[in-house]
């Protein structure tokens, strides 16, 4: 059984993946946030900074992800990525955000099976890398996802990752397991389950339902509970020294941004996002989290973090 960390734009970048793998581990692969392809033939190396070997400092497996709807552009970007040493690329046709979907990219392409077929026809003729696909149940109905899976079945893919919501749902509501079951039963490729694994107990529930599935992708649940993958892999619940690990995880990321970003605001924007997820465990009315959200000064912020860690009751060593 394999566990994958889902990509999240602006969050699961190289420093986050390095910190996660060093301090918690448990994931077999970390999916990098998507890079959007364009028709520009001159590609800036800055665009691929997050994938550069010198920024991925641990031995964890990183899977690059591309977002686009043009096969030739995908191949062009894919060549740059393979030159960096990667041998698998994930095609994102699941992103639900309007800035993406209105361009018929991400889950916006799901109602257009002819475009998906044309894309795969081009890419699969020329690719020199393994290709996997991350998708949703459809844009607004499962029938769209069913037609897409029929097309995917005709092409050589490593696996498909299915998130159990439609595009218009974004991350609202709950996963549609009946809809997932329909796509899963139809697929000729290995299927990875993705959606609403927020705890160790959630994983056990989904794993029991899908005993034949060999890989699960975890996103927001892992950002809230970074020890989850380790707990699953080693059947340790909860893991020991959690308070120490959370603080080490925090400090790893804070130190990086303090060295690479200029100005308290930029540093704190990143750290407030960190606490948006990790702080979910502490409840919505934690007074120290409230102070962290309001502070504009890094020294003040550090003081609030220390007070929070001293007084919280969830993470124990």
Biggest sheet: strand arrangement:
3-5-6-7-8-9-10-1-2-4
Shape: globular
* Average pLDDT reading: 95
Order of helices and strands: EHEEEEHEHHEHEHEHEHHHHHH
The radius of gyration over CA amounts to 20 Å
How much of the polypeptide forms β-strand, as a percent range? 5-15%
Uncertain spans, ≥5 residues at pLDDT below 50? none
| Distance between the amino and carboxyl termini | 29 Å
**DSSP strand count:** 10
Assembly status: single chain
Strand-pairing-aware structural class: alpha/beta
Helix content: 40-55%
Main sheet attributes: strand count, strand direction, barrel closure: 10 strands, parallel
The count of helical stretches stands at: 13
Detailed description of the structure:
With 317 residues, this protein is an alpha/beta fold. The chain has helices at 14-23, 71-83, 98-101, 113-126, 142-152, 177-186, 200-209, 220-224, 228-234, 242-260, 264-278, 287-294, 298-311, and strands at 2-5, 29-31, 35-36, 62-63, 65-67, 88-93, 130-136, 160-163, 191-194, 215-218. Strands 3-5-6-7-8-9-10-1-2-4 form a 10-stranded parallel β-sheet. It is globular.
Briefly, what is this?
The chain is of the alpha/beta class and 317 residues long.
Labels describing this entry:
single chain, 317 residues, alpha/beta, 10 strands, globular
Task: Please outline the helices and strands.
Elements: E1 2-5, H1 14-23, E2 29-31, E3 35-36, E4 62-63, E5 65-67, H2 71-83, E6 88-93, H3 98-101, H4 113-126, E7 130-136, H5 142-152, E8 160-163, H6 177-186, E9 191-194, H7 200-209, E10 215-218, H8 220-224, H9 228-234, H10 242-260, H11 264-278, H12 287-294, H13 298-311
Parallel strand pairs: 1-2, 1-10, 2-4, 3-5, 5-6, 6-7, 7-8, 8-9, 9-10
